[in-house]
Amino acid sequence: MNLPHPSKRAPVHQVLDPRLLGRPVHLLQHFADRLKADLTEVFIGSLNRRYRATFQIGEVSMARTEPDASQFEDIRWLTLSANAGRIGFSMDRNVLMTVLHYRYGLQDVRAKGDAAVDNNSLPATATEERLATTLGLQLVNILALRIDTPDTGFEPEINLPHDFAPVPSVVPKAGSWTLSVVIRELTNEVEGVVRFRLDEAWMDRLLRKLAPQRDKGASVSSSAGMQPLGGQLPLTIVARLLEQDMPLGALMDLRVGDVIPVRLGSADVLVEDARLFEATVAEHQGKLCLSSFEDIE
Prior knowledge:
By secondary structure, the chain is an alpha+beta fold. Helices cover about 30% and strands about 25% of the residues.
């Protein structure tokens, strides 16, 4: 059997996640590039100029991961929580120890680090853990600022609106987003990765900030000869307010005028029997309304 030349074979296409359709995922690399510039400013200002180090920010990328418990335990994570959600932070130990040596004025980083820095099985010292927390808070705040202002200039002196604090780490859900930053220190020939793991709340916040702002007052051009896509796809939604379980005997005993006490909580919103949203039931001017829609994945 004759096989086609490798250059003529069909290209392998990325499989799309239907949960991300309509979200500005294509702008994530632009966001990563802006964050790279922010981190470069931080490392040049706080380490290179102060300690004459040679840190460089390399590739910055975002990807969905499918971690398991064993993979999670291989990396030392610091989880920082604020009102907006949680962000996990980790820095490869060889990079962390290089920063530590520069800050404390120790010499010959490679000689002191080869045996201990690369061996992540060794217990961390209290000084190392404090430095990891300090760097984590600094870098996670910068990431949060970039998420909140994805298209503005970097202002390191701005008062950050999020009050992050360390919390216990948990194994992330499958499909969590991880932002990876390659860091190199040329003098000591050190290379490692800094990782930020965004929870669902922060990832949703980022995608909403990246979404283009549409002009609500803009009218559809008559020369197009067709309605907007939203007008071409009429859908009927059904709100399932509650389900009540009753014994058969109690159901048979019901008479006209009887009252069944119920309590309304959240409602399921269905399209063609497919449960797509969860909404809060509220009262407005004597009518029941649905608000606070949340996607159901």
